[in-house]
Amino acid sequence: MTPASHLSLGLVLTAAAGMIDVVGFIELGGFYTSFMSGNTTQLGAGLAHMGPALALPAGLVVMFIIGSFIGSLVSSVGHPRGRVGVLAIVIAGLLITLTLHANGFSAAQAMLALAAAAGAQNAVLPQPGAVRLGATFVTGTLFAVGQDLARAVRGDAPPLRWAQHLLVWFALLLGAAIGAVAYGYWQVGALIVPGAVYLLFMIGFIFHGRS
Q: 20 to 30 A from 58, CA-CA: which of 36, 37, 75, 210?
């Protein structure tokens, strides 16, 4: 089982990821800043036409990989500096997106930085338990719900570990719902909400490292 304190931090970060992804999804008209399986499917469908529609999903996938690469390098520095550094990358991605949008760049251009931020976020938290925390996607998490439920029935896993996976899924769902409501009021400016969450986490990691 994942420790409760670590689980709580991860759930908040996962909810923040849901807020970001829903803003990107709405702005991009059905493309994602963190769900690369969906973008890859759309990229494959676009290959049949070999038109300009290929550029957006391909760009999002590439930027997600770049963000994952940089975030993983920075996180390898160790706790807490690595976490602080990764969160700084995520916040920078949000600020770049907001700046580009405010200066009249298209959603397709502005949201590329958001995809890089989403890729980096997956490196924020280590995974001391079976539950993947702070990630920006939950397809594997949903599989783990069924997998650990089967293991629990056989007596091969803690009886409630599957519920922790389900909580992660729910956190992303809740974050997406909150993000959608915030988007209704502030459009792309809704990114300030998850940005504030990341900033609080970064400050917390800084002070925790000094204690």
A: 75
Q: Give the right CATH number for 4-210 from 3.30.530, 1.10.10, 2.60.40, 1.20.1250.
A: 1.20.1250
For the chain, give percent helix, strand, coil, nearest 5.
75, 0, 25
Residue with the two structure tokens 């000094």: 210
Tens digits of residue pLDDT in 81-134: 999 999 999 999 999 999 999 999 999 999 999 999 999 999 987 665 567 777
Q: Using an 8 Å Cβ cutoff, are 14 and 168 in contact?
A: yes
Half-sphere exposure of 82 (CA within 13 A, CB side): 16
Report the amino acid identity of residue 55. A
3-state secondary structure of 127: coil
What DSSP designation does 120 have? H
Match 């079976």 to its residue by tokens.
130
Residue 210 has pLDDT above 70, yes or no: no
Indicate the domain borders of the chain: 4-210
| Contacts of 8 by beta carbon, 8 Å cutoff, 6+ apart | none
Closest C-alpha to 34, from 144, 179, 148, 162: 179
Q: Classify 158 in phi/psi space as left (phi over 0), alpha (psi -120 to 50) or beta.
A: beta
Amino acid identity for residue 44 in this structure: G
Asked whether residue 151 carries a pLDDT value surpassing 80, the answer given is yes
Examine the pLDDT at 78 and tell me if it is beyond 70. yes
Question: What is residue 208's predicted lDDT score, i.e. its pLDDT?
Answer: 79
Query: Which residue from 117, 163, 92 is spatially nearest to 23, judged by alpha carbons?
Result: 117
